[in-house]
């Protein structure tokens, strides 16, 4: 009897403790929300600062001479800018969505902000149908990623200026032409938008509806805030957060991965899954052509093929620096064979990987025997690859960051271990999502294990 009373007492104490914890988290979230709502009018100062910083980082290195062999971070601004853009900004941007969602897009991104400001002063034309087609973000990602590889975007400042500066000009143009005070570029054309969107579904932050009020707020990325169900297009601008007002959304902190676990009621989108599969394959191709011995054989075959069809005179042709790597002074020049081989290798990797993952996901959906149509189940299950893809991209794009850890006293083994832990974490998280999405541990997991293993192995070969 004494024991039962003790247990009840312990349970009550535990519940009180949980309640206190929840109240503490809620209070903290309300303080953060209140801060952003009160200061959203001042975002313009942050946007201006980011525009200046970004412009310096992409413009100045393009005007400076190429760093010498013995240059270091401390005496070469070009190397410092390279570390800041490719070593810190890019990988940490992807990682940040787990903790903050797409806060970068709404608060810090100079492209999006400029596009919105241009759109306020612009022609306010209706957005053409073709821009709103679901395949456009995939095309944008493919174009920018492939061009980045052909230009040597991480090594050469002129290439970074062309791609990052060029997309900024397009963002401004699109904003100027279409929509009034909104961001059609961020929603439909940004090459990074869909990637950040899918990964933000894994994130710990979301904006949720307060009541059943049907009032909506104008959203820069064209979300119907009265019916908002998913996070992928939300750039966290706080414009729909008006505490106490009808139809307001509020900031919510949740368990990372929760939105994907309950993706059925979070508006899953087949285009997002197609993008996830394709982007994984394209990114894999972008790393493999640099390290995989098979690529050398493939390039030789492409060269022989061009010779056989009578294009021998063109094989050695090198395009200008804005089309492909062309720096004879550094001994780094691509020719037509490089151009065709890299492009086709990356595209083949994209299509091949997407087909393999689609086939395995379809097999898992068939084994699951869900009552939903097959394509609906495939769409739902496809999201399980988000963690393994995210972690692999962070490790791959963060190679410069990991290499720089050596300068801070980290041994090679320790760096490898950190990368390994990250890598394993992504795979395990994907497996966990697979179990949650298929409603428990059953045989439908087998194709998913194969798919996760395939992605992990392909990345492992490219990175380790
Ligand atoms: S849903 Fe709200 S916070 Fe998200 S982008 Fe739209 S207006 Fe901004």
Keywords:
binds iron/sulfur cluster, 464 residues, 4 strands, mainly alpha, two-stranded antiparallel ribbon
Description:
This protein is mostly helical. The protein is built from 18 helices and four strands. The protein has a domain of 194 residues. The chain binds iron/sulfur cluster. The site of iron/sulfur cluster (SF4) has 16 residues, from loops.
Short structural summary:
The chain is mainly alpha-helical and 464 residues long.
Give the strand tally.
4
Mean pLDDT: 91
What topology, given as strand order, has the largest sheet?
1-2
Low-confidence stretches: none
How much beta, percentage-wise?
Answer: under 5%
**Helix percent band:** 55-70%
| Class per helix and strand makeup | mainly alpha
Distance between the termini: 60 Å
Q: Which ligands accompany this protein?
A: iron/sulfur cluster
Count the helices. How many?
A: 18
Query: Rough shape?
Result: globular
What string, H for helix and E for strand, traces the elements in order? HHHHHHHHHEEHHHEEHHHHHH
What summary fits the major beta sheet? 2 strands, antiparallel
> Roughly how many Å is the radius of gyration?
24 Å
């Amino acid at each position: 009897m004494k024991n039962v009373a003790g247990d009840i007492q312990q349970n009550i104490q535990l519940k009180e403790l949980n309640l206190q914890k929840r109240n503490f988290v809620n209070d903290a979230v309300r303080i953060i929300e209140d801060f952003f709502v009160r200061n959203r009018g001042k975002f313009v100062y942050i946007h201006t600062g980011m525009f200046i910083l970004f412009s310096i980082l992409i413009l100045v290195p393009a005007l400076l001479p190429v760093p010498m062999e013995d240059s270091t971070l401390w005496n070469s601004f070009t190397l410092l800018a390279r570390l800041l853009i490719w070593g810190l900004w890019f990988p940490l941007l992807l990682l940040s969505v787990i903790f903050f969602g797409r806060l970068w897009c709404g608060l810090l991104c100079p492209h999006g902000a400029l596009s919105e400001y241009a759109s306020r002063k612009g022609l306010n034309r209706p957005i053409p149908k073709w821009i709103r087609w679901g395949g456009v973000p995939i095309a944008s990602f493919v174009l920018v990623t492939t061009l980045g590889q052909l230009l040597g975007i991480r090594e050469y400042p002129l290439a970074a200026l062309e791609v990052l500066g060029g997309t900024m000009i397009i963002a401004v143009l699109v904003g100027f032409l279409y929509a009034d005070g909104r961001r059609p570029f961020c929603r439909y054309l940004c090459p990074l938008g869909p990637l950040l969107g899918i990964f933000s579904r894994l994130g710990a932050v979301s904006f949720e509806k307060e009541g059943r009020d049907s009032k909506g707020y104008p959203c820069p990325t064209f979300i119907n805030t009265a019916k908002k169900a998913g996070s992928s297009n939300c750039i966290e601008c706080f414009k729909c957060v008006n505490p106490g007002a009808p139809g307001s959304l509020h900031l919510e902190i949740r368990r990372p991965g929760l939105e994907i676990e309950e993706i059925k009621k979070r508006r899953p989108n087949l285009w997002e899954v197609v993008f996830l599969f394709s982007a994984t394959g394209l990114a894999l191709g972008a790393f493999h052509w640099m390290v995989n011995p098979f690529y050398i054989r493939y390039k030789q075959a492409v060269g022989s093929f061009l010779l056989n069809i009578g294009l021998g005179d063109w094989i050695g042709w090198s395009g200008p620096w804005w089309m492909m790597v062309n720096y004879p002074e550094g001994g780094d020049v691509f020719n037509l064979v490089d151009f065709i081989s890299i492009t086709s290798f990356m595209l083949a990797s994209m299509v091949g990987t997407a087909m393999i993952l689609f086939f395995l996901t379809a097999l898992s959906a068939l084994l699951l025997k869900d009552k939903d149509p097959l394509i609906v189940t495939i769409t739902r299950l496809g999201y399980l690859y988000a963690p393994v893809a995210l972690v692999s991209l962070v490790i791959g794009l963060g190679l410069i960051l990991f290499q720089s850890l050596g300068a801070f006293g980290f041994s090679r083994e320790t760096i490898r271990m950190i990368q390994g832990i990250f890598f394993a974490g992504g795979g395990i998280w994907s497996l966990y999502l697979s179990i949650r999405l298929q409603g428990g541990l059953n045989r439908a997991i087998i194709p998913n294990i194969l798919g996760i293993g395939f992605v992990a192995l392909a990345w492992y070969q490219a990175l380790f």
